[in-house]
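User: Could you go from structure to sequence for me? I need the amino acid at each position, not a summary. Structure tokens:
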């Protein structure tokens, strides 16, 4: 009986050894063999900031760039590459082995960094994103905006008006994802990329302007962007804000009060300030945009929707509540805020 037990144990050990040897050789083959040694076509592959090694391996498998995602993860972990993988865009090939791919995605020379300018971000926010990517020192992007001298290339920019602003191009750096070469990056390159994008995205829209200037539309769009969400809400709020302006009412948009602040808290001092961005106190639009608006907000600013409403608020769930009178608005404030 004991002898039989030892035979089973020996068989198990041998099977385990065979499995280990087989797995090891399979692993070696996976990391040292390309998916297609003859295919040198460049494939764009993006790694997002914060993505796990397992997620990157899965994406490489989906792109048919590696033989095994588990072998990729094992190789990265065993060789200490897990903390060295860079976020960005890489051009990889099917004739590269897993080892060669790992070398490529851990070398900054091969990476195109990506920056996403979300709708509603300011130039100050973009500056911080570039600092986080270690592409610039704090303030360098803002300084490049102040030093901008390419006005002649962009007829939609009102140089006379914008030059009077602290950050002249606020609102015109189109929100999108941009790929940047860290080895040659200069702040002005992103400025021109974003302005080119703005021009392309608005090429069919801006010629339809009749009543307002581009600067007025972009300024209003930036306020709408920061005030409410959703296409329909933006059109209705646009109608309300333009109606207030035409009736010599203050806009009363909290978003303008928050421009330039480091937090999203409006104080009694903010409400009483004589800042031109205090649209609770002063009539008219603020001097310029307060963020980068989406195409949806630009369209809303250009094509407002008529409604019986004069007031609106956003509740804690993000729903927009409208009112036709100040009394009704106060009731909504008491109920929803």
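Assistant: Here is the amino acid at each position, in order:
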């Amino acid at each position: 009986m004991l002898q039989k037990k030892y035979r089973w144990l020996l068989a198990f050990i041998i099977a385990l050894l065979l499995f280990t040897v087989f797995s090891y050789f399979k692993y070696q083959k996976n990391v040292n063999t390309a998916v297609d040694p003859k295919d040198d076509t460049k494939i764009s592959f993006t790694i997002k900031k914060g993505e796990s090694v397992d997620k990157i391996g899965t994406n490489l498998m989906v792109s048919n760039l590696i033989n095994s995602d588990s072998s990729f993860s094992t190789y990265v972990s065993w060789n200490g590459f897990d903390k060295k993988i860079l976020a960005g865009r890489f051009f990889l090939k099917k004739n590269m082995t897993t080892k060669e791919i790992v070398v490529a995605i851990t070398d900054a020379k091969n990476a195109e960094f990506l920056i996403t300018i979300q709708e509603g971000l300011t130039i100050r926010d973009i500056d911080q994103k570039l600092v986080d990517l270690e592409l610039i020192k704090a303030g360098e992007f803002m300084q490049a905006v102040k030093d901008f001298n390419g006005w002649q290339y962009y007829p939609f920019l009102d140089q006379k008006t914008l030059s009077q602003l602290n950050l002249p191009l606020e609102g015109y750096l189109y929100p999108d994802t941009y790929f940047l070469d860290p080895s040659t990056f200069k702040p002005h390159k992103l400025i021109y990329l974003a302005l080119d994008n703005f021009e392309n995205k608005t090429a069919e829209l801006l010629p339809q302007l009749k009543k307002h200037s581009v600067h007025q539309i972009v300024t209003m769009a930036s306020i709408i962007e920061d005030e409410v969400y959703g296409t329909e809400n933006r059109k209705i709020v646009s109608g309300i804000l333009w109606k207030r302006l035409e009736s010599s009412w203050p806009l009363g948009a909290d978003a303008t009060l928050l421009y330039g602040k480091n937090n999203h808290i409006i104080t009694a001092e903010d409400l009483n300030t004589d800042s031109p961005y205090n649209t609770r106190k002063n009539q008219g639009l603020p001097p310029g945009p307060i963020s980068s608006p989406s195409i949806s907000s630009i369209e809303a600013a250009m094509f407002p929707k008529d409604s019986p409403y004069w007031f609106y608020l956003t509740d804690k769930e993000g729903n927009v509540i409208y009112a036709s009178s100040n009394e009704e608005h106060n009731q909504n404030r008491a109920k929803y805020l």
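One structural detail worth keeping in mind: The first strand starts at residue 43 and ends at 47.
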